[in-house]
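User: what does the whole thing look like in 3D?
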Amino acid sequence: MARGSVTPLLKEIRSNPLLWLLAFVPVVFIARAFKPEAHTLLFLLSVVAIVPLAALLSRATETVAARTGDTIGGLLNATLGNLTELLIALAALRVGQYVLVKGAIAGAIVTNALFMLGASFLLGGLKHHVQEYNRNTARLQAGLLFLATIAVLIPSVVGGADAPATTAVFIQRLSAGLSVLLIVAYGLSLVFSLITHRELFAAADHVEAGEVQWPLRLALATLAGVTVLVALVSEVFVESMQQAATALGISPAFVGFIIVALVGAAAEMVTALSAAVRDRLDLSVSIALGSASQIALFVAPILVLFSYVIGPTPMSLQFWRGAVAMMLISTLTASLVTNTGRSAWFVGVLVVTVYMIFAMTLYLLPPQ
Amino acid sequence: MARGSVTPLLKEIRSNPLLWLLAFVPVVFIARAFKPEAHTLLFLLSVVAIVPLAALLSRATETVAARTGDTIGGLLNATLGNLTELLIALAALRVGQYVLVKGAIAGAIVTNALFMLGASFLLGGLKHHVQEYNRNTARLQAGLLFLATIAVLIPSVVGGADAPATTAVFIQRLSAGLSVLLIVAYGLSLVFSLITHRELFAAADHVEAGEVQWPLRLALATLAGVTVLVALVSEVFVESMQQAATALGISPAFVGFIIVALVGAAAEMVTALSAAVRDRLDLSVSIALGSASQIALFVAPILVLFSYVIGPTPMSLQFWRGAVAMMLISTLTASLVTNTGRSAWFVGVLVVTVYMIFAMTLYLLPPQ
Amino acid sequence: MARGSVTPLLKEIRSNPLLWLLAFVPVVFIARAFKPEAHTLLFLLSVVAIVPLAALLSRATETVAARTGDTIGGLLNATLGNLTELLIALAALRVGQYVLVKGAIAGAIVTNALFMLGASFLLGGLKHHVQEYNRNTARLQAGLLFLATIAVLIPSVVGGADAPATTAVFIQRLSAGLSVLLIVAYGLSLVFSLITHRELFAAADHVEAGEVQWPLRLALATLAGVTVLVALVSEVFVESMQQAATALGISPAFVGFIIVALVGAAAEMVTALSAAVRDRLDLSVSIALGSASQIALFVAPILVLFSYVIGPTPMSLQFWRGAVAMMLISTLTASLVTNTGRSAWFVGVLVVTVYMIFAMTLYLLPPQ
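Assistant: Here's the predicted 3D structure for the full assembly of 1104 residues, as C-alpha cells:
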C-alpha cells in the first residue's frame, strides 16, 4: 500500500486521543513474552489495548459500509458491528471457557440495552429538555431482543434439574435448533429493515459530516489487520483474566458481565453518547439496541454453532438464571422506556439505575 | 326435518373442501369397532375427523349468533366458540387424564395467542404493506389473558414444595375460588364489550357477505348433532392418544400442547387467516385473542368446576411451570405486538418464531 | 395554643364521620392497661383507632404542604405521605418482626398500586363513561415502581440457596447498597417532577375548594401530636397482631399483606375514590401510584437502613418469593393499564380482580 493512502488513518489517530492507546498494543505482546506469569499486568494491558482497536475496527466497518451503498452497508454493519465482542468470545470458546463466553454475551446485551441507552438518555437530557426519536427502530430492536430472551429463558425453565444426563442431550439439541431459529429471524429482520420496510427506519449513518473520508482499500486493510490484532490481544486477555480477577479481588461474574462488556463496547459507547449530546438520539438508540439485538440473535447463536467445530465440547444456550433474569429485565426496561419515542434526563437515571443494580449485585456476589 | 331445509348444509359441504374430511367420521367408529387395539390408526383418524366437525360447529354457532342479534349472538359466540376444545377436554376429564386436559388448555391459549395471531400478521403482511386494526379489542383480550395468566401463575409461585399434603388442599381450594373469579371477570367483560361500551369494539361479524345464509332450525340442529359427534370422536382421540404418541415417538407434551390445540383450532384458523389476507385484520385479531381469552377465563375454570362433578378427583388450576412460562410469554407477546394497532409481515415472523421456540422445545423434550 | 385556633380541627372532626373513630384511641390505651392479655380485642381496637389517626395525619401533612409552596409542599407530601405505614413498620422493626415489616411493605405497594388504583377506575367508571387522565404521572410512578421491584427481585434470584452463610452476608451488603440507590433515585425523581420538568405533571393539589383552611401552626401541632399517637397505637397493634391472627384463624401473611395495608392506606383511599367519582382521575392515579412508589423507594429502603440502628439485627431487602411475584405483577399491571391515559369501568374490574387473586391466595395460604 502506498504511503499516501495511509494518511487518513494517521490523521485520525493524531486527532482522536482514544486511538493514542494503540501504543499499548505492542506493549501487551512484549509483556507477555517477558513476563508470562504477570497475569494482573497482562490483563490490565490487554484491556487498555482492546479499547482503541475496537474503535478502529468500528471506524473501518462503517467506512466500508458507507462506501458500499445502503443495503450492503447496512448488512455489513449488522454482521461486523460487534466483531470485537465476537473475537473475544471466540478466544474464550477455543479454550472451552464457556462461563466467560456466556458472561460476555449476557453482559454485552445488558450493557448495550441498559448502560449505553440510559447514559445516552441521561447525557442528552442534561443538555436538551425533551428529546424525540424514531420509535420504529426501538420497537423492532426491542422485539428482537425479546425473542432472543425467550429463546434463552425457555431451556432454563423447561429443562429441570431431574435426569441430568437426558437433560444435557435435550438442552444441547435444543440450543442448536434455537440458534438456527434466531439467526433466521435476525436475517429476516434485516430484509425487513433494509429492504421491504426501509422507509420506516431512519438511515442512521454513522459517518458524520466533517469526518475525513477513508479510501475503501485503506478501510479494508485496516479491517483485516485490526481483526488479527484484536484476536491476538483477546487471547492474552482471556488467558490472564481469571487469575487477574482473583488477584484483584473482583468476582469472575463481574469481570465477564461488566468489564468485558464495557471494553468491547467502548468505541460504540463514545459514538452513541456524543450523538445524544448533539440531539441525534435516533442514532444513539439505534446503536445501543441494535448492538444488543445483534449480539443476542447473531453473535450468541454463531458461537453456539461454532462451538461444535472449534470448542472442546458443544456449548449450549442455557444461561445461569441470574443472567437470564438480567437479560429479561433489560429487554423489558428497554421496551418500556422506548415505546413513547420521547425522553428526558430522568428516563436515563431510571435505566442507568437498573444497570447499577445489576453491577452492584455482581460486584458483591461471592465467588461460587 | 324436511329434505329442503338441509340444502344449505349440503351446498356448504360441496363447496368447502375442508368439510369433505367429514367422510372420516364414520371411518373412526368403524375402525374402533373392528380394530380397538390399533391406537396409532385410531389417533390419526380421529385427528382428521375432528377438523371438519370443528369447522361445522363454528359455522353453526356463528349462524345462530348472527340470527339472534348482536348481544345474544355475541354471548353465544363467547360461550360456544371453543366448544370443540371443551368437548375434547371433557372427554379427557372424565377419565382423569388431567395432564392432557391442562396441556390442551395451555396449548390452546398459546396456539391462539401466538400461532393464529402471528400467522395472520404474516400472511396479511405478505399481501399488504402495513395493516391497521382496532386496538381496543386487542387491549381488552390481552388484559383478560393477562388476568388468567396471573391466576395460573400465583398458585404455582406461592404454593411451595413444602408440606405437600397441606399444600394440595390449599391448591385445590384456591383453584376453585380462582375459577369462580375468572368466570365472573369473563362475564363482566361480556357486559362491557357487548352492552355498556359496545361502540369501542368493531362488530366482528364472522358471516361474510356472499355466504349462503342457513335457516335457524338447520343451524340449531347442526349444532346439536355435531356436538354429539365431536364428543364421541374426542373419546376415541383421548383413548388412543397416549399410546399413539409413544408409538410415533412424539413426546406427550408435544401432543397435548401442539397437536390437540391445532386440531381444535383448525376451523377458526382458516377464518382468521383468510380474513388477514383480505385485509380484515380486525377480525383475525379478534378471533385469535378472543379464543385464547375465552379458553383461559371460561373453558379452563369450567373444567376445574366440572371436575368436582364428573372427574375421579377434583382438578386444580396449577400448571407445570413450563406451561405457566409459555402462557405468560404468549400473553406478554400478544400484548406488546398489538398495542400499536399496526402490523407488517415481520411482526408475524416475530410472533410465529416465539411459537416455534415453544414447539421445538416441546418436541425435543424427553419423556419425563 | 389558644382555644380559637383549634376550631378548624374540631369543625373537621364534627363534619367527617371517619374522624369520629378517634374516640377509640383512648379506648386502646385503657384496654391495654386493664386487659393486656386480650390480644384479639387489642388488635381490633388498634385497627379501628389507626384509621382516623391516619386520616388526620394526611390532612395535616397536606395542609402544611399547601402552605409551603409547590416545591417544598410536594417534597413534604412525598416524604411524609406514608407516615402511618412508616410508623407501623418502625414499631415492628424495633421488636425485630421483620416478616411483618416486609409483609406490610409489600402489602402497601400491592394495595396502593392495585386496589386503590382499580377501585378508583371502577367507581369513577360507574359514573363516567370514559375518563382521561395525565399519563405522564402514571408513567413516572410506574417506572419508579418497576425500578424498586427489580431491586427486590435481583437479590432473590441471584442469591441462591447454596452456601447460606456467605449468602447471608452478601444479601445484607447488597440490601444496604440497593437501599441507598433507591433513595437516590427517589430523590432525583422529586427533582424531576417538582423542579426541572414540573410542567409535565399536573399539580395534584389535595386540598379541595370549599375545605376549611387550617392555620399552619395548627397543622404542625396536629402533625406532631398525631405522629406520637400513631406510634403508640402501632405498638399495641404489632404486639397483639400475631396472637390475634391465630385466634381469628387468619394467616399472618393475610394480616401483614392485606389488613395492615388497608388500615394504613384508609385515609388516602377515601381521597382517591372520591376524586375518581368527581372525574378527577389525575388525582386518584397520582395518589395510588405515588404512594406505592414512595413506599417502595423511600419507606422500604429507610427501614433497611434504620434496622442497622434500631433493629436487633440488620434487615435485608430480600422478600419471600410470593411477595416478589405479587409486587412484580402489580407493577406490570399498573404500567399496562395506565399507558393509554384512558379508563372505563372494566379496567377497574381487571385491576381489582388481580388484587382479589392475591387476597384469596393469602387468605387460603396455610400457616408455614
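In plain terms: The two ends of chain B are 52 Å apart (CA to CA). The mean pLDDT of chain B is 85.
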